[in-house]
Amino acid sequence: MSSTGKPSKSKAAVVAKSAPIAAPDHQSQLDFELDFFETILARNPDFVDVLRVHGNNLTLKGRYGDGLKIDRRIVDLRPHDAQAHYNLACSYALLKKKDLALRMLRRAIELGYCDFNYMREDQDLEAIKDDPRFVQLLADFEAR
């Protein structure tokens, strides 16, 4: 994602973007989608594709704590998913939890996340980009 550090699109995101359901005049599209996906998750709380989109929307709305809860849930459901760990790292960084952000970023890279250029540009990771551990982490893995 452009400003949320979540670049991949799930099937639900593609569906939501390709066939948007119009929000009522008094409600923004983002607020409508938040309500819509919460309804789906109330019926199926382990629907990972919807969790990903919902977490992204929460982050876009500035609800970083709620986005963090979703990202933790996805990591619980998919413990070997590199993208899930990357998104969790972004959530921690947005909340200025540097140690946890760096730990999850390392785990994402260990699991195969390797878009180092994106990591350097991702606005969600701003809180850790000046940390020497971030620079070293990228250098260590890019050298492999």
Gross geometry: globular
> For the record, what CATH class applies?
Mainly Alpha
User: What is the H/E string?
Assistant: HHHHHHHHH
How much of the residues is beta strand, in percent? under 5%
Total number of distinct structural domains: 1
Arithmetic mean pLDDT: 88
Number of helices: 9
Architecture in CATH?
Alpha Horseshoe
Question: Overview of this structure, please?
Answer:
The protein is mainly alpha-helical and 144 residues long. It has one domain: Alpha Horseshoe (Serine Threonine Protein Phosphatase 5, Tetratricopeptide repeat), CATH 1.25.40.10. 67% of the residues lie in helices and 0% in strands. Helix 2 runs antiparallel to helix 3, helix 3 packs antiparallel against helix 4 and helix 4 runs antiparallel to helix 5. The longest helix is centred in the N-terminal third of the chain and has 15 residues. It is globular. It starts with 10 loop residues before the first helix and ends with a helix. About 9% of the residues have low confidence.
In short:
By secondary structure, the chain is mainly alpha-helical. The chain is built from nine helices and no strands.
Layout of helices and strands, plus pairs?
Blueprint: H1 11-18, H2 29-43, H3 48-60, H4 64-77, H5 82-94, H6 98-110, H7 116-121, H8 126-129, H9 132-142
Task: Supply the key terms.
144 residues, mainly alpha, Serine Threonine Protein Phosphatase 5, Tetratricopeptide repeat, 9 helices, globular
